[in-house]
Design brief:
Elements (H helix, E strand, L loop, with lengths): L2 E7 L13 E2 L2 E2 H10 L6 E6 L2 H9 L4 E3 L7 H9 L6 E5 L8 H13 L5 E9 L8 E5 L2 E6 L13 E5 L2 E4 L1 H9 L4 H6 L3 H6 L4 E6 L9 H10 L10
Parallel strand pairs: 1-4, 1-6, 4-5, 7-12
Antiparallel strand pairs: 2-3, 6-11, 7-10, 7-11, 8-9
Helix pairs in contact: 3-5
């Protein structure tokens, strides 16, 4: 079963413009994510998908496989779909370009889990976290293996009992080819607009999204404060490789 990791990368991030090429200890973030993805043992290939010439030229200069996508793409999933029209694969993994500290073993676990649970159109991993009170981190509500809802709010709400543990959506998303094609045809949904979470579109159109819990921690660069933290964390990271 062929697996392709696609790293969507755009310049005009609403919370941190130009973060793809921001230097984390002298190495641009997009390069760190790409090299991280290459450490996955379950993938056959990795590429960056962008609509920005600065990112395109940087990737070419560093010999990073890159595909130019349309500026009309509104989401990372749209970019992954465009790549799927050019490169055939049995599974497409959307790895967000702001995950410079992603554990390659976590990527492998997502791929293996989706291969074993191929009844799901889409698979996202979840992490148990404590007292998350920021809208930048998406929370998952699930029933057994199935995702019921994504939210930026702290859910489920502890009505009768204190709850300090939530499930965080880790930014690694595995798609079947048919799921990408179906998602592309769907219009932006009501709850997607409210939450600002593209996978709500899939849920609202009865697509099956599976999830499982990973152990450990996750860290994505959503804001400039996160970027400062990433510079500190990367120093002692076990998967860090300087090139």
């Amino acid at each position: 079963m062929k697996v392709l990791i696609v790293i969507p990368s755009r310049w005009k991030s609403s919370r941190f413009v130009g973060k793809s090429l921001a230097l984390i200890n002298k190495i641009p973030m997009i390069e760190r994510v790409y090299k991280r993805a290459l450490q996955s043992k379950q993938t056959d290939d990795v590429c960056v998908a962008t609509d920005n010439k600065k990112i395109l030229n940087f990737c070419k200069a560093r010999k990073i496989k890159v595909i130019m996508t349309s500026k009309k793409c509104k989401t990372g999933t749209d970019r992954v779909y465009e790549v799927s029209k050019k490169i055939n694969s049995d599974i497409y993994v959307n790895l967000q370009g702001d995950e410079p500290l992603i554990d390659p073993k976590s990527i492998d676990k997502v791929i293996l889990w989706h291969q074993k649970n191929h009844n799901f159109d889409i698979v996202v991993p979840s992490l148990k976290v404590k007292n998350i009170d920021t809208p930048h981190i998406v929370k998952i509500v699930k029933s057994n293996k199935r995702v019921l809802y994504f939210s930026r709010a702290k859910i489920p709400f502890p009505f009768k009992k204190n709850n300090d543990t939530y499930l965080k959506h880790l930014s690694v998303i595995s798609f079947k080819p048919k799921a990408l094609k179906k998602f592309k045809k769907l219009k932006e949904s009501h709850l997607e607009k409210i939450e600002g979470i593209e996978l709500m579109r899939a849920l609202e159109n009865n697509m099956q999204i599976g999830t499982f819990e990973l152990k450990g921690d996750g860290f994505s660069v959503d804001t400039k404060d996160d970027f400062i933290k990433a510079k500190k964390y990367i120093v002692n990271d076990q998967y860090r490789k300087e090139y």
